[in-house]
Design brief:
heterodimer, A: about 110 residues, mainly beta, five-stranded antiparallel β-sheet, globular, B: about 110 residues
Chain lengths: ~110, ~110
């Protein structure tokens, strides 16, 4: 069954703008991960945030986690055309499986 | 380049064919995975191998048969597939199967069943 659900399903912005994507999940977790996928390619890991962390940064990426609301957000600041991709959240749902959502398709226009 | 290599990148096969997908990692990881990605669906976990033993089989039809001969290689043997099996098949590896570390994905094999 689907654990993570990203919102919005699609997002279009201009270069330089910030992009925010949200992920909601259903069960308790040990950690939540964000991945990026260019069209038809493999997934690339971006950030892992543990259940006892509230915020994490990596370059232009900022991830927040609210376990009380069972939600996470990924913020990409000062977006670039090269950020165009699909972004997925994945949770372990307290199991040994990594369960993915359907993803947010981000389009950044030059 | 993630360190996980999948071959072939593209495969077209008939429903009566037998083919195999190959995945290779030299990251020293102990866990390897097969995922299926269909259009507009979440990634579906198919199989998990930890230390060369299958630890997860997510109700995958028997026409998909995995094989893990050693910790660096993972195969997915395909036999009498259906058109709805057409999808992007992704292999991944991680340090272990605890899911407390990141997964590294290959570029995938785009499979078309005709």
């Amino acid at each position: 069954s689907q654990q993570g659900e990203e919102d919005p399903q699609a997002l279009s912005i201009q270069e330089g703008e910030n992009a925010t994507m949200n992920c909601s999940y259903k069960t308790s977790i040990n950690n939540l991960q964000w991945y990026r996928q260019n069209s038809g390619r493999g997934l690339v890991h971006l950030i892992l945030i543990r259940s006892n962390e509230r915020e994490k940064h990596s370059g232009r990426l900022r991830v927040t986690l609210d376990t009380s609301k069972k939600s996470s957000s990924l913020l990409i600041t000062a977006s670039r055309a090269a950020d165009t991709a699909s972004y997925f959240c994945a949770t372990d749902a307290n199991t040994d499986k990594l369960i993915f959502g359907t993803g947010t398709r981000l389009q950044v226009f030059p | 380049e993630t360190g996980v290599t999948q071959t072939p990148r593209h495969l077209v096969m008939g429903m009566t064919n037998k083919k195999s997908l190959k995945c290779e990692q030299h990251l020293g990881h102990n866990a390897m995975y097969w995922y299926k990605q269909s259009a507009k669906k979440p990634l579906e976990l198919m199989f998990v191998y930890s230390l060369e033993e299958r630890v997860e089989n997510n109700s995958v039809p028997s026409r998909f048969s995995p094989e893990c001969p050693n910790s660096s290689h993972l195969f997915l043997h395909l036999h009498t597939l259906q058109p709805e099996d057409s999808a992007l098949y992704l292999c991944a590896s991680s340090q272990d199967s605890s899911m407390n570390t990141e997964a590294f994905f290959g570029q995938g094999t785009r499979l078309t069943v005709v």
